[in-house]
Amino acid sequence: MASLSHDAILDVLCRLGVKDLVRFRCVSKPWCSTIDSPDFIKRHLSHSLKTNTNLSLILPTAYIFSVDFDSLETPQRLKHPLDESDEGKGTDILGSCHGLLALMNGDDDYEISLWNPSTRRSQMLPFTDIEFPPWSIGFQFIVYGFGYDPISDDYKLVRMVQFHGKDQDSVDSEVKVYSLRTNSWRRVKDFPFYHKDQYQIGVLANNALHWVASKKRLSDTRSFVAAFDLETEEYRVIELPDCLDMGFHMSLNDMEGDVSLVAMGGCLCLIANCWGAYVDIWVMKEYGVKESWTKLISAKQTQHLPTVSPLALSKTGDKMLLNVGRKFIWYDLISKKAEIVSIGDVPSCSRAEVLVQSLVPLNGSVYGSDGESLEIGKE
What we know:
The protein is mainly β. The chain is 11% helix and 39% strand. The longest helix is centred in the first third of the chain and has 14 residues, at 38-51.
C-alpha cells in the first residue's frame, strides 16, 4: 500500500460501497481524513451516479424497506428518525436526492426530517407557519419537492401550499424553501399555476422540481409540466411532445401515491394515459429540448394494468424496472418481454424510490454523533 500514490488510493476508495468506507475509516488517520473530506464525498457520489452503482430500492409501506437494486433480494426494514413518532401509521417520502430522503410523519405535516439511510444521520426541520391570505379560511392541500442546488451547494425542500382563490374558479399559493445549509425556511415567489393533484411529489431532474399543473383557472383542464429551478428559484413550463402539447390526460395519482411524472436515470419521464385506451411512457433524453422526447413504451390500458411507473434502467440500459400496480416488472426494451420480480416478504406497495448510497453529511458529520464506526444497514 505504501507504494500506491494518493490518487490511486482515491480511485480505489471511490469505487467502494458506503458500508465498506465507514469501516475503512479505522484503517488509519489519513484514510479517515480522506473519507470524511467534502471533496472525497463528492467524488464518491459522482462515481456512483456515473456508473449507476451503489443503488438501493426504497419501498415505503406502513414501514420503510430497502433492497439492493442489483439483486432485488433480502429486503431490510429501515429504522428511520420518525419510526417512534408514527408508530407504524406510515411515513411519507417527500423526495430523495444524493442518498438523502425527505420524510414526513404521516399524521403530522409539521414533523419533517432529512435522513441518510446509509450513514443513519438525520436532521429534523424547524417548524414554519402557513401564511394565509386575508380572504382564505383554509387551504386545499400541500405538495413538496426535494433536491440539490449545485450553485449554492445546498439541499432544498420546497413546500407549496395551495389556497382557494378570491373566486370559485381560481387558486392562490404560498411557497417556502427550506435550506439545509442555513437550517431555515424562507418565502419565495408564489407558484403561478394550479396543482392538478394533491398527492404528487415534486420530481427532480436537471436541478429542478416538476409537477403536473394547469393554469390558475380551475375551469382550464389542459395539463402541462411546470418546473421550479432550484438554482434560480424561478418557474417555467416544460414543452411536451408534439402529439401531446395540445392538451392531454395525465394518469392521475390515487390515494396511495401512484405517479404520472417520474425521473429515471436523471431524465424526466411522463406517463400519458390516452383516454383509457393505452398508456405511453415518454423520456426527455436531453433536458429542455422538446425534440428529445422519446416514446419508450406503449401499452394497452386494461383492468390488469391500473398504473404504470418507470423506476430505473438496468446497468446495461436494455431493461427498465417498472412498478405496475403493486408489482415490480423488468421490461426488456429490445425483446418487449416482461418478467415479474418478487422482492422477499415486503408488503405490496404502489411506489418506490431508487436511492444512491452516499456519505452526504447531515448535522455536519458523516458518521455517528459520538464518533463510533457505524454498521451500515443495521438498526
